[in-house]
Amino acid sequence: MNNGSILVFFAYTTIIVSWTWARFRFFKILSRSSRISSLFYDPIVIIQIANTYYCIFKEDQFEVIPTTLGLTAYILGLTMFFWSIRLVKHLNFAFSDRVGAVVVTGPYSIVRHPIYLSYAFVWLSSTLMFKSAILWITLIYLMVFYFVSAKKEEKVILESEYSREYLEYKKKVGMFSPRILRWIQ
Questions:
Q1: How far, in Å, CA of 133 to CA of 48, rounded?
Q2: How far is CA 6 from CA 59, 61, 122, 151, 156, in A?
Q3: How far apart are CA 168 and CA 102, in angstroms?
Q4: CB atoms within 10 A of CB 113
Q5: If I label 46, which of 13, 18, 56, 174 is the partner at 20 to 30 A Cα–Cα?
């Protein structure tokens, strides 16, 4: 392994260990639909992770610019992930029917779904660094899963006692990208 692969390996492993911890200690699977959604999510994540590790060990030479950008996206994703979960006591796994309070501070003041966005940074970064067809397929699947999960979560919130508050929040904050015009005014 060369220096680039060692850096990528340790950064990626740190992310996977952190996410695994959160998956079993932080995220709660409370509803039947959450358990079912994990059946469609976990295997794809495992394929994404295994293929990324395969690519890390297979790669002969890591180019400086793609590796630097990839590591930067890894750090950004992990930072956003921990910043997000630090603000909430626990979260329900995707497709939950439960609603907690609406969080609008920290990364939630930038995007409505910062945890999904943190995952996207990492998966996209790995896909772009390694250019694997399997990574592209799993990336597309996971992005669709996050979008569908986010829409379902928002529907549940909009049907709760928090609907008015959430509608105001939605006007100000984008789902996965910041509403930059809001900052310019």
A1: 11
A2: 11, 11, 17, 38, 43
A3: 11
A4: 23
A5: 174
pLDDT in tens, 132-160: 999 999 999 999 999 999 998 899 889 88
Which of 50, 45, 67, 35 lies closest to 116 in space, CA to CA?
Answer: 45
Mean pLDDT, residues 164-178 taken together? 93
SS3 content of the chain, % helix, strand, coil (to 5): 75, 5, 25
Domains annotated on the chain, with CATH: 3-184 (1.20.120.1630)
Q: Is residue 112 a contact partner of residue 175, using CB atoms and an 8 Å limit? A: yes
Identify residue 92 by its one-letter amino acid code. N
Structure tokens at 150: 């986010």
